[in-house]
């Protein structure tokens, strides 16, 4: 394995492979308990989320290599989407000790690196995970199909799905919320979807809530996000920055996802900002 050979030139390296949900978290927790300096996670956003969860609160650093279909968190740090280029960037970062503590979010006790989606986008992720065997082969066209299927068929756009309290401010009727720990929200090919450019690891959480789910509003939002302008508050959209806590609830269950990993439905969700939760290896971009 080229990654192993490259890292083993200057480091003592042990390779472990995951084969079921939760494995990466347990391996990361073991590495932290043993006092290892760093865990290099090579996988998609779900794998990286599990490793970050296992390392949160410890003195073991996380380094990341892109190995998934979208690699949102890796790319948001400026890391190349090609594994061997990314490996050079991260190796230089480790050699130069470019390691710092960054914040994470936490939803119902589980950490997230870049965002939690509640409502519509969680319904899209659930559709994709139903066809997980096609995800690696088809990639982003599958997400586009799932988005259309959820929009026109499976997701109810007539009635609100939950209520929110954002640092004590009440929003009674919501259809779709994204709580961001960083930006971009996701990528479409090489294009970043900049839902909230103000979101960053160095800041508290940013919350974007859609109080309407109309086609003109979503198309306008998507156009603005792809241009890099982000979403602006309006009669149909609420934008909150510098947020510490978000509470969501409703009598009927609503879906949610963390870092692109569908976690099912719930009637209550507590989200909080967790400062300095994770030691992170920063890539060296200019080399």
From TrEMBL:
Domain DAGKc intervals: 1-111
Q: Name one GO cellular component term.
A: plasma membrane
Q: Which InterPro entries match?
A: ATP-NAD_kinase_N, Diacylglycerol_kinase_cat_dom, Lipid_Phosphate_FormReg, NAD/diacylglycerol_kinase_sf
Molecular function terms, GO-annotated: ATP binding; ATP-dependent diacylglycerol kinase activity
Q: What is this protein called?
A: Unannotated protein
Report the source organism: freshwater metagenome
